[in-house]
Design goal:
globular; alpha/beta; 6-stranded antiparallel β-sheet; single chain; binds adenosine-5'-triphosphate
Length: 365
């Protein structure tokens, strides 16, 4: 999957700017605060309908402007796709090959993208929600309908939470809660199965990559904990009972305590929780291994590598891991956009683009 060209209008610090990329490595070079990350964010937004930096689109608008427009040509499976996203009056409109797309969730996954930045360390260091997000973002790219499933589940959780907050008498609640619980089991089971399957597939690839990156003997283990259990099949069988057992507690605490919205991905290094015991360097290697596994899995699934966006990643890696990553990208022919400052050690390969105060210029030679 390749991006051929990209256009930004009134997006962040860009007025009206176009750039044409090359199939292999594309390096966006410039001083701090010139707009390198904004290009990456714009492409990610165009492909996923979301920014990874802000919740509200409003913040993506160039200051004092009323609408922004992003568009570009992509190649997927030898077919050209023209994709546009327009944001105005708090609404976003997406068009694929000039045809309006009714639901964004139907589009997500058509063109796959993997984004990687130093903030991804939060996958290891942060709380369970970060790890669930990692799984969900990946599944959304390879399983059509997953975004709709997640949205439906989250809506049920919100409605059940609202019910828990609104009543005082226990007798009133239990029958109504049962109705929501049936839906939680139905939708939640599907989410657990997707996440469990993905975790097992990531594990197969990630441990191997981790060993290559570190040339160490440590073992990387990743397991999905559904409803607090290591075995997802057991968790699914016990799901309705667990909901019943926790009903009084849910009523007391006025929150939904059972379901995949509270699940976690356990990441171990030599059987010890990586979050607590792994060094910063080991954690970086784990995240890199998991990200590269994502690339491999999308390749297995779709027959093509996704577009890879690396924001400020290279400066964080030592020369061995940096070289490993570049070699991986080159040998797999993955189209990659890399941001780096002018002060960093430049790569020998790749087309260079100079980014300066919201302008992008290809550097020849
Ligand atoms: N909504 C906005 N409207 C106009 N300018 C904005 C907006 N949001 C951010 N900016 C500007 O964009 C610039 C930051 O761009 P970006 O984050 O892409 O920097 P960068 O080139 O990646 O820098 P670094 O190397 O420091 O990461 C800043 O100058 C900031 O003031």
């Amino acid at each position: 999957m390749n991006i051929i060209n990209f256009h930004l209008k009134n997006f962040r610090n860009y007025d009206d700017e176009s750039v044409t990329f090359v199939p292999g490595i594309n390096i966006l070079v410039g001083n701090n605060g010139q707009g390198k990350t904004n290009i990456i964010e714009g492409i990610y937004y165009l492909l996923t309908g979301k920014s990874y930096r802000v919740q509200r689109e409003h913040e993506l608008l160039k200051w004092d402007k009323e609408d922004f427009h992003l568009y570009g040509d992509f190649i997927v499976n030898h077919h050209k796709i023209f994709l546009e996203s327009h944001f105005q009056d708090r609404k976003k409109r997406v068009k694929i090959n000039h045809v309006p797309c009714q639901r964004l969730s139907d589009f997500v996954g058509t063109i796959n993208v993997i984004f990687f930045s130093p903030d991804d360390l939060i996958m290891v260091k942060g709380g369970p929600s970060e790890r669930r997000r990692f799984l969900d973002l990946h599944i959304a790219q390879i399983r059509p309908g997953y975004v709709r499933l997640l949205n439906a589940y989250n809506k049920v959780i919100q409605q059940k939470s609202a019910l828990l907050k609104s009543y005082n008498e226990k007798s009133l609640k239990s029958s109504q809660l049962q109705l929501w619980n049936i839906q939680i089991v139905e939708l939640g089971t599907k989410i657990i199965l997707h996440r469990d399957e993905l975790t097992k597939r990531i594990l197969k690839v990630a441990d191997e990559i981790y060993k290559n990156i570190t040339s160490e003997k440590e073992k990387l283990t990743i397991s999905y904990y559904a409803l607090g259990k290591k075995n997802s099949q057991d968790a699914i069988k016990e799901f309705p009972d667990l909901l019943n057992q926790k009903m009084d507690q849910e009523i007391d605490r006025q929150m939904v305590l059972v379901g995949p919205h509270r699940d976690d991905l356990q990441i171990l290094l030599d059987d010890k929780p990586a979050r607590l015991y792994a060094s910063q360097g080991q954690q970086r290697s784990m995240v890199l291994s998991m990200k590269l596994s994502e690339l491999e899995l999308i390749h297995q699934e779709k027959g093509e590598y996704p577009l890879l966006l690396l924001d400020d990643v290279l400066s964080e890696l030592d020369s061995f891991r940096r070289n490993y990553l570049i070699k991986f990208i080159e040998t797999s022919h993955i189209q990659t956009l890399i941001t780096m400052t002018s002060a960093e050690k430049q790569l020998e390969s790749g087309a260079q683009f100079y980014v300066d105060k919201g302008h992008i210029r290809r550097r020849e030679g």
